[in-house]
Amino acid sequence: MDLAFTPEEQKFREEVRAWVRENLPPEIAHKVHNALHLTREDMQRWAKILGKKGWLGYGWPKQFGGPGWSAVQKHLFEEETALAGAPRIVPFGPVMVAPVIMAFGSPEQQKRFLPGIASGEVWWSQGYSEPGSGSDLASVKCRAEKHGDKYIVNGQKTWTTLAQYGDWIFCLVRTSTEGKPQTGISFLLIDMKSRGVTVRPIIMLDGGHEVNEVFFDNVEVPAENLIGEENKGWTYAKHLLSHERTNIADVNRAKRELERLKRIARSEGMYTDTRFRDEIAKLEVDVVALEMLVLRVLSAEKSGKNPLDIAGLLKIKGSEIQQRYTELMMLAAGPYAVPFVKEAMEAGYQGEFVGAAYLAPLAATYLNMRKTTIYGGSNEVQRNIVAQVVLG
Amino acid sequence: MDLAFTPEEQKFREEVRAWVRENLPPEIAHKVHNALHLTREDMQRWAKILGKKGWLGYGWPKQFGGPGWSAVQKHLFEEETALAGAPRIVPFGPVMVAPVIMAFGSPEQQKRFLPGIASGEVWWSQGYSEPGSGSDLASVKCRAEKHGDKYIVNGQKTWTTLAQYGDWIFCLVRTSTEGKPQTGISFLLIDMKSRGVTVRPIIMLDGGHEVNEVFFDNVEVPAENLIGEENKGWTYAKHLLSHERTNIADVNRAKRELERLKRIARSEGMYTDTRFRDEIAKLEVDVVALEMLVLRVLSAEKSGKNPLDIAGLLKIKGSEIQQRYTELMMLAAGPYAVPFVKEAMEAGYQGEFVGAAYLAPLAATYLNMRKTTIYGGSNEVQRNIVAQVVLG
Amino acid sequence: MDFDFSDDQEQLRDAVRKWVDRSYTFERRRAITGAGGFDRAAYGELAELGLAGLYVAEDQGGMAMGPVEAMVVLEELGRGIVLEPLKHTLVTSGVLGAYAPEDVRSAWLPKIASGEALVVLAHQERKGRYRLDVCEAQATPAGAQGWKVSGEKSIVPAGDQADAFLVPAKANGKIALFLVERQAQGVSTRGYPTLEGGRAAELTLRDAPATLVSEEGLTVLEHAVDIGIACTCAEAVGAIDKTMQLTAEYLNTRKQFGVTLSTFQALRHRMADMKMQQELARSMSYYASLKLNAPPEERRRAMARAKYQLGVSMRFVGQNSVQLHGGIGVTDEYAGSHYFRKLTQLELEFGDTLHHLGEVSARMQDTAGVFA
Amino acid sequence: MDFDFSDDQEQLRDAVRKWVDRSYTFERRRAITGAGGFDRAAYGELAELGLAGLYVAEDQGGMAMGPVEAMVVLEELGRGIVLEPLKHTLVTSGVLGAYAPEDVRSAWLPKIASGEALVVLAHQERKGRYRLDVCEAQATPAGAQGWKVSGEKSIVPAGDQADAFLVPAKANGKIALFLVERQAQGVSTRGYPTLEGGRAAELTLRDAPATLVSEEGLTVLEHAVDIGIACTCAEAVGAIDKTMQLTAEYLNTRKQFGVTLSTFQALRHRMADMKMQQELARSMSYYASLKLNAPPEERRRAMARAKYQLGVSMRFVGQNSVQLHGGIGVTDEYAGSHYFRKLTQLELEFGDTLHHLGEVSARMQDTAGVFA
């Protein structure tokens, strides 16, 4: 048992840190460190910088052009980029659809789609949720009918994150209504520039445009865009859901944001307030405990001994911590969380602030983070899963 | 709307207060104020004092010899006795079985049983729970078979509070196995001196003897001891459960104990500790809010307008508050909650204390109070009931 | 001890509720938010109902009602998440009526009651957070009766729309309270939208002409804030009630895995916990309003207890309502999310939950209870 | 970064677990409690396993093991809620080995390792609560090398059974650490049972002859307490594990309303929340043991974080386990209630949860994390 990383791991960390210091644009880091709005250009710029280095698909094996890192290396990469203020990688391409294409796609599909994902050129969206499905993904209704060498897709997806920027979307579609709901689902890649695809924004409670409804009206999709076999999509989707589990805790972002919380509290005179400081102290213990939990999972993956079946716990605790630091930031602002000036949440805002610039986005971020206990399998669903592990 | 009690109610309160000041034995009040062990004699002594005044059955209507008080008067009586350090009235006779006898007993039964209850001479116990029944009372198995003018009772009751002192016990017994479980239950009064009744102590986690198992082995019970009709016992039991609901919050005891908590915290140097004092402050708000809830129920009962269906909330909040003040008392003691000297928890202990006399019972009281969220319908069952009101 | 509403109070409630239901629809509210967060016409309609004069004496055109009536009105405005700052009118009219000299009262209260003048409290400064004794604004005598005030006040409700402000400023080293008109020389405002979709402003005073309301500025300010707390508690109760209603309806309608959400015990228990907070909140809102006329020490203690409880309840009900709604709960489209924003803002007004925990702690006595 | 146990560590765990399962049955434990809460024979069996010498150097008869081995042992003793104070032996042997002069070490460590001598820390005073810098006991020089100590120490583990005490006392105004033998003149003890069913004592010293262990008493005492915290965390993890196991078995067995309790979603979710606390507790126990050899500042910060988390987890798991058991959970007869008592006491040892929250707060830095 040893808490310290090995010298090799430490060296790896230093290399990543040095590279990030050189390559992360400071104006992007500034936005991340201050929770300012990131544009599509910001996100894609960083994706392409990573792509050029071969690190956008940082979880990919070498055979597909990834770096072939160990679980620990991936964690160190996530930590270094998060602490430096890099944007989170938009996961739909490199983290979500790519592993499915690698595992179940044909060599042609791999050759066709993976390079654009690896380079950050092609923006992918995820078409899973539908109105009425929510936590019950197997109830997918959006249907794809085979006509010759095409599928004709009709239906609707919703909660489609950043689909307004999407070039391609991977969808769960219903290709059969026979048998159990799970058995009639297929996994289809759809070009969003196809005729009949419409994207309608959903404005979130913080006033932001982050998610969308996507409508399919007789959209023609070449049959070669089907991943694997027809009606086996549920299997592939589950593979995707089980992939990349430790980072669902997002503990490295939490460490960065805890630092920011302390800075905000200090500036607002609340860091020396016993009551408020105690709340930060509790959160600090939460973050350390979550990090230990993550490290234990990594250690288990590394050695292959005593696997830890606690993805549900990571999701629950990680999301609760995210909500708590945004809540405490808002409370640190106190009355100054009431002004709600959208323009002041943008980088480069030239107008006057109310109180101080760093206060401007705090309430909006708090509102926005309410989603984290809902999406990716709500925390109630996660508790069902955890209970299943404990009680059978 | 008015927060103040009416002049008549105030006058009533003064009368009760003056009487309690005159009549509550100070050595008993001392024990109550310091959470020391109350003996059977203590409890019965106070019961008889109340009985002599006609106040042991303080909730009884005048026709049965009670004072015929209003809901507010009952509350004021409870408040004055609690704050003065009177023991809680052992409820099984005057609060539980008496209303059933009044509502469903024959005139003969009323004449036979009520005087002994009103005077505090006869100690009653409650025979509801059985091993395996818990929250599911309708699953009663203890059976009573009619043979001529007698019932022969066989079976077991458990969690029978203070049955070691009991003269009589009222029991739910199974007289029929036909139909729904609820329909075959009868309500029977049993003399605990009958042959075949055995009482076995259950020692609680604090080491105290408060509850018992009661075994019935071919116990002969005269048929005239049946309340109402055979197989209708469930109806009578429900009547009992719905009776006397506001005092389940026990808010007046909570006020007294909050005062004690403050005294203990002050003596231990914790009343000026910001962190600990905040915990007391939170509890203080809880207690005030609970008292307002209780007063709202009383007001609704008084006027008959807008009845409040919140007995479940009173039980949940009241029990949580009980647990919290005992927990905070223990935490105020800190390391001095570790010594666990049973004799030092008795009044009149002549030995040395560890630290201070008032510290001796704090941990045991904390342990003991874990029961409050379990008994009388566990808080989980109460949440089911509350949810039923909200969601149908 | 009686918590029933009188017939008059019930009628008042009905009148306000009708106005909200008919005239302050979700669409109108959305339009008001879009147009900046304050609508003078809507405020005028509230005044037409007599509500702006609720605390104003009858001989000055008001209804001379008390805290319970104010509570009834604010519950309904909270249920409709009305943006226009009627509660701030109750705050200012309440203390003007109680503390201002006769000439100030007769000059302003009739106009306030009629809705002609909107007067709001402008006490917050950048360094003050929720402390009332922090005041950098300065007042100096000017002429026979007049004063001049200089300073910066922050997050003033509807500050760029109001007609006048009640402003604490230091006169001879002690906080006094002044009335300053927005159109006067040396007064400038900078308005902006708020978290709930309403409006506030930064206020700058440079030797602005001012009328003295009271030399006992801190006493009056504390009373003003306490009126604000009681109103905020009532508003929160209304918003919580509606939130509960929306959530229960949703759980009873929405299906997942083939059954309605309301069949899941874990969600049912959450609703039971929310119901607990709802009833505790209502109880403590009653308590606040019924203690509003108590002596200052007792009143302040009661308001701290009430606002602490309401803060806990608002946050719990608001957050869990969003959670139980799932995705739809975090969209702007859905009315419930605006209730959540409202509840979030109400927690931050007149002292947040940790602030009032500190107040409760500082004001503890040996005994405790509703009457202690 | 590696959290696997070595084969040696696994063997150590097996050995201790076997002893607990075979030799420290619930019945034996009950008998020990009934007889006063401490059994020298049971303690001797632990020593025979080599555990009393876990921290003692090999040339003094010990096993010279580290904090991870200590953690493994304490987890198992916690799982068996063993009453005998092995962890206090680790505390005293740990600091004696690190700080005591050679002659003290060679006089005492072999006897400690063999189980012949039980030496415990006696640092608590009535006014100290959990503060280590509060010390009223006084030490004065006596003769060539010797000292005399006078004072009162409180809640000393197995205090009337131990052979010697490590006692902080002020020498020339500064806290120094001394060793005092129980049989020496001027030493008296008064023993009593504890919350968990074990034993402690009040200790009175009147010019008791004492051996100086270290002039840097506070430094050594802090280290001693930190060893105690790491041990207590591990002990708690063992007790939590067993509590979880008992609770899961109960829910899967016990029927209400015709179905097993484990079918109720609200109870399942409670178990999920308890599982969360179990894993957070285990994680922070690892953290504590792995930080035990860090520099003092870092070590103290880590112990505060760990004990805070463990305090939260212990209370949550303990209380909810009782609750989920219903009536049976609050009976002495049922093993689970003794785990609850154990967990309750462990929270109070070496600083309770609020105390350590204060420590975490006082020790916060700009950054945070496992490595900060």
From TrEMBL, chains A, B:
PANTHER family: ACYL-COA DEHYDROGENASE, ACYL-COA DEHYDROGENASE FADE29
Cofactor(s) the protein needs: FAD
Ranges in a coiled coil: 241-268
Sequence ranges assigned to domain Acyl-CoA oxidase/dehydrogenase middle in this UniProt record: 127-219
Domain Acyl-CoA dehydrogenase/oxidase C-terminal positions: 231-390
Protein name: Acyl-CoA dehydrogenase family protein
Presence of the UniProt keyword Oxidoreductase in the record: yes
Organism name: Ramlibacter alkalitolerans
Pfam families given in the database record: Acyl-CoA_dh_1, Acyl-CoA_dh_M, Acyl-CoA_dh_N
Segments forming domain Acyl-CoA dehydrogenase/oxidase N-terminal: 6-121
Family according to the record: Belongs to the acyl-CoA dehydrogenase family.
Keywords attached to this entry: Coiled coil, FAD, Flavoprotein, Oxidoreductase
Automatic annotation (TrEMBL), chains C, D:
Cofactor: FAD
Keywords: FAD, Flavoprotein, Oxidoreductase
InterPro entries linked to this entry: Acyl-CoA_Oxase/DH_mid-dom_sf, AcylCo_DH-like_C, AcylCo_DH/oxidase_C, AcylCoA_DH/ox_N, AcylCoA_DH/ox_N_sf, AcylCoA_DH/oxidase_NM_dom_sf
Pfam families: Acyl-CoA_dh_1, Acyl-CoA_dh_N
Domain named Acyl-CoA dehydrogenase/oxidase C-terminal: residues: 216-353
Ranges of residues in domain Acyl-CoA dehydrogenase/oxidase N-terminal: 6-116
Protein family per UniProt: Belongs to the acyl-CoA dehydrogenase family.
PANTHER family: ACYL-COA DEHYDROGENASE, ACYL-COA DEHYDROGENASE FADE28
Protein name per the record: Acyl-CoA dehydrogenase family protein
